């Protein structure tokens, strides 16, 4: 066995009366990928916050290379060779890629001025080592979420850490970017870097992890070899029960066409780098049907959903969109909501939630008109609506008054769903609906989608996790450069077929096949 870079022994941390970590032992060895698994709220984030110096008032001991240490701030952990890639991106949108990569470590000239030439040279080298083709002069705020994630990874790797904590590093990455990251992880492993890998994707854990430690309710439920244990055993350790099926059963019957998109093209007034607007998108979603949107990063999935919700780029449009047989071209989300269209965006924290708002207020935000009389919100009606959605979606929160930012990622996502469902949509647009949520919350979301489809709702779901549309959807529409290139029945296709279409090895479907 390789040397232990970091050993955590008996780590215990309470927040008020809630025990977040209870007597946790965790070891990271040189050249090892050690997966840390568990449902949201199991204690993973708290344990890693202890390791990274964010949480300092804890019980237990940390040793680095055999020497006991006590971190009083994140800078202490970084100085000890521990770097963290956070699930929620920690970048400055107004700065360029290069400025973010060297933030806090900016190269200086002899006159102590910022050496921009050296900064760009350093940034290009860091991106090259990761295999990322990005202009280091571009503002980070203009990048897609997946591209921002790659910048975050490049910055963490540039610290030359001996221990690297990766918290959901592939949550916003397409398959090609995931393979690139895995190649980088293999190189780091050869260099003797120890990696803590936090992910809810079982196939990733089996592919790259040497060990997997599972936390449940703040304690260690077990440590296994993921290559021999299999996902069933790991999931059982995570949730404390056997999970027979993750995706659930498909809806047996569908109704009339609800959404019909025919050769939709958007020519924006102002082009934004990194965006791929619809350029010949064709698809149909029937009542009671779950349709998947697949494609490589930059294929235009998010842009198509935003356009259908009235939140896309402004500009000239061609083609047609019909909702319930009537022309549909919302200029703003409010118009889409009035027509019965809901949208769960990819970035829940940045685009869907006000983290300081109470959970209850967050749920009713899009449906206040249903809860008012003469412009006055009826509090009893509001409380009843909130309580109903919290119970229906099993949102774990001590109270409706708790800030939504204090909830786990899976419960935050349920709040976003609750808000949209309270508005009573007939068509639900979903962009990466299970990004960053644990396996138990995923199963609950999948069951919810099947229940909504059984009730006659149409669902259009964009996902970069190919097992997700294959397991949940009835059909899968594949986009490439904003254009529909395939419309595949989920029951008779596989990941290879979807990737072949996404890479241009599949003929475009006719209007009849769509």
TrEMBL record:
Q: Where in the cell is it found?
A: Cell membrane
Q: What is this protein called?
A: D-ribose transporter ATP-binding protein
Q: What does UniProt give as the signal peptide span? A: none
Instruction: Specify the species.
Output: Dactylosporangium siamense
CDD domains this protein is in? Answer: ABC_Carb_Monos_I (cd03216), ABC_Carb_Monos_II (cd03215)
Per its UniProt record, what PROSITE patterns does this chain match? ABC_TRANSPORTER_1 (PS00211), ABC_TRANSPORTER_2 (PS50893)
Its cellular-component GO annotations read:
plasma membrane
Question: ABC transporter domain spans which residues?
Answer: 6-242, 259-506
Keywords, sorted A to Z: ATP-binding, Cell membrane, Membrane, Nucleotide-binding, Repeat, Translocase, Transport
Q: What is the lineage of its organism?
A: Bacteria, Bacillati, Actinomycetota, Actinomycetes, Micromonosporales
Membrane topology per record = Peripheral membrane protein
Q: Which GO terms describe its molecular function?
A: ATP binding; ATP hydrolysis activity
């Amino acid at each position: 066995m390789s040397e232990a870079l970091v050993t955590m022994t008996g780590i215990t941390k309470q927040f008020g009366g809630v025990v977040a970590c209870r007597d946790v032992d965790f070891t990271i060895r040189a050249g090892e990928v050690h997966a840390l698994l568990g449902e949201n709220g199991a204690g993973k984030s708290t344990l890693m916050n202890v390791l990274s110096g964010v949480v300092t008032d804890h019980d237990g001991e940390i040793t680095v290379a055999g020497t006991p240490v006590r971190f009083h701030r994140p800078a202490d952990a970084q100085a000890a060779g521990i770097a963290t890639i956070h699930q929620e991106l920690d970048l400055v949108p107004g700065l360029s890629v290069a400025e973010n990569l060297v933030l806090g470590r900016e190269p200086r000239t002899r006159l102590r001025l910022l050496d921009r030439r050296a900064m760009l040279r350093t940034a290009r080298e860091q991106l090259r080592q990761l295999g990322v083709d990005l202009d280091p002069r571009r503002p980070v705020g203009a990048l897609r979420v997946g591209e921002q994630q790659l910048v975050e990874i490049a910055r963490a790797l540039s610290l030359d850490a001996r221990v690297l904590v990766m918290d959901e590093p592939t949550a916003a990455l397409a398959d090609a970017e995931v393979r690139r990251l895995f190649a980088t992880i293999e190189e780091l492993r050869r260099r003797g870097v120890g990696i803590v890998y936090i992910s809810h994707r079982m196939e990733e854990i089996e592919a790259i992890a040497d060990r997997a430690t599972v936390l449940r309710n703040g304690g260690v439920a077990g440590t296994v070899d993921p290559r021999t244990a299999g996902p069933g055993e790991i999931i059982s350790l995570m949730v404390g029960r056997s999970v027979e099926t993750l995706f659930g059963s498909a809806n047996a019957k569908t109704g009339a066409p609800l959404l019909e998109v025919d050769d939709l093209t958007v020519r924006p007034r102002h082009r934004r780098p990194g965006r791929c607007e619809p350029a010949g998108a064709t698809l149909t979603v029937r009542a009671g049907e779950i349709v998947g949107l697949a494609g490589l990063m930059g294929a235009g999935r998010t842009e198509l959903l935003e356009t259908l919700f009235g939140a896309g780029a402004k500009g000239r449009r061609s083609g047609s969109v019909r909702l319930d047989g009537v022309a549909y071209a919302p200029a703003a989300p409010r118009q889409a909501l009035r027509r019965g269209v809901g949208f769960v965006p990819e970035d829940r924290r940045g685009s869907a939630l006000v983290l300081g708002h109470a959970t209850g207020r967050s749920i009713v935000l899009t449906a206040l008109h249903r809860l008012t009389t003469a412009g006055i919100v009826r509090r009893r009606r509001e409380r009843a609506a909130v309580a109903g959605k919290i119970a229906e979606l099993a949102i774990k929160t001590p109270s409706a008054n708790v800030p939504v930012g204090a909830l786990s990622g899976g419960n935050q996502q349920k709040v976003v769903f609750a808000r949209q469902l309270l508005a009573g949509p007939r068509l639900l647009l979903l962009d990466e609906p299970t990004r960053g949520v644990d396996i138990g919350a995923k199963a609950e979301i999948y069951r919810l989608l099947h229940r909504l489809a059984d009730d006659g709702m149409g669902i259009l779901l964009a996902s970069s996790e190919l097992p997700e549309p294959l397991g949940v959807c009835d059909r899968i529409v594949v986009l490439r450069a904003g254009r529909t290139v395939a419309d595949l029945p989920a029951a008779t296709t596989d990941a290879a077929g979807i990737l072949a279409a996404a890479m241009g090895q599949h003929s475009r479907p006719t209007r009849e096949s769509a």
